[in-house]
Design goal:
The structure holds two protein chains of two kinds. By secondary structure, chain A is an all-alpha fold. In chain A, 68% of the residues lie in helices and 0% in strands. Chain A has helices spanning 27-50, 58-73, 77-82, 89-94, 104-123, 125-134, 137-146, 155-188, 200-227, 234-265, 270-278, 282-306, 311-340, 363-383. In chain A, helix 1 (27-50) packs antiparallel against helix 2, helix 2 (58-73) runs antiparallel to helix 5 and helix 9 runs antiparallel to helix 10 (234-265). Chain A is globular. Chain B has a two-stranded antiparallel ribbon. Chain B is elongated and about 105 Å long. Classes of the chains: A mainly alpha, B mainly alpha. Chain B: InterPro entries: Multihaem_cyt_sf.
Amino acid sequence: MSGFHEGSAMLLSNFVLPNDLHVHWSMMIVLYPYITGLVDGAFIIAALYYLFDIKTLKPVARFSLLFALAFLCCATIPLLLHLGRPERNFNMLLTPNPSSAMAGFGYIYAVSMGVLGFIVLFVYREDLVRLKQQSRGMMKLIYRLLTFDCDDLSPKAMALNERLIKILVGLGIPVAAVLHGYVGFIFGGVKANPTWSTPLMPVIFLFSACVSGISAIVLAYIVIRKLTGKAIDGPCIITCIKTLTGFFILAFSFEMLEVFSHSYLKSGYHHMVEGLLNGPLAASFWLWQVKICSGIPLVLLGVMAFIKLSQTRYNLLAAGVSAILLLQVFIMRWNVVIGGQLMSKSARGYTVFHPEWLDKEGILSVIVVMIIPFVILFVLGKIFPFWSDDRGESID
Amino acid sequence: MSNYALRLIAVATTLVVATGIGFVVKAQLIPDSFGKYGHYRANAIDEEVQRPIRHGTNTSCLKCHTYEAAIHLKGRHNTISCEFCHGTYADHVSNGKKSGTLPVKKNTEISTLCLRCHNTEIKARSQAVIKTVAMPQHLESQEVKLTHTCNQCHHVHAPLKYINRAKQITGLTEAES
């Protein structure tokens, strides 16, 4: 008779419509904005160096571009895994509907991929030409392709190269902002969901994207340099952390501003949002996102800003803060995407979400999807040297 | 103009040409009838019309099953489609002749089937529309064994048929259809 009681295992509250029981946009849709956010933030670091001439960021500038490229390569994987018939996404791209924003991502993605790809080729030009001359066989063919089969490194050619980098990075900033702002816009555009339907959504997504991307670059830089026994550039880490502090203060303020405006305006569905944040999301929003993963970094960033620390301690704190902030942004995406779906359209009840391990969109898939960009990064590292001091001298 | 600049012009030209080819391929891949009536493939309408009909109405079923018809049409379940519980018409009849046997639910399968609609956990519809019960509380309150299946007390086509008959015999209360 156990079949009778299947329903009673669900921890539903009040009145949940049958089509609201299941959370349809699950962990893959959490990963999608997380990955595009990492791309966006990493690109900002590169843009600060190549466009705005912040010289101290030089050690991580090239690496940021490769990091962004590796993650951008994987930005569509979560979406395609989520779709029941992934091959049909091409139909949508063939006949985009002006009244639906869904096809937009395909076009924005293609443009950002092209822009980022060419930025990497122009930034690495000198190295690529040198490596082409040193390599043989298959690698030589790859480098011939990547240098457009041209060894010209004359001052005139390099001046043109510099100009192209500036133009493309300048173009890349709005493209990166649109790529990730679009994700926020898609959520903000879902009128039926009171937690998503706010014009603040793209803004919050953009700032938290910068936080996650910069944190990822800081953490990856420190970890890779430590593991390979190379020196960590102090001023570079300090500039990264200062930039991170600025973006995090903005991101956190907007996250709180959204809650405040919901609570102050007391719009039609305010009682639902309030119940959601204090009910099913009490632990993941207030405890994890706000108190632990935002409170601790704010204190640590304050310590790093105002107290004189040795560079080793500063680097250690930088790695720690970055790791916590990466978690903060992931939890924020979780609370927005999954949390937003825990409310029933009945406006009277909440459902629950149980992640599964072996599901197509389960925890194992999440881990695999998050490993793929690092594999791509590793392969990219074999073609494009991560650091400008890899050959013992400065390149840029 | 440097060698590199010329090479870049070649790359840019290739990109423009590739984009042009992309647009041509895109135009080729879009189905001919797309956009004739709206933002969809007009031929899809004809294709859907050609799709064989799989479902029938209760009239189709009850034409042959006259014994069940007599009970079903008088009971509380008279608006429920036969296919809800028994399966698809096309799996049973083709070209007006019996072509297959629909599976018959037995024992606990019947109870599971009933609870698809009559489970209190499904809160979307009010008690006035569908009577719902919690299990095993319902069996306990009726003072029957917990292994009882729904159809031991309720006729599946007319759920109150036996209940009302029992009430009539015992004189407990007035009859209800």
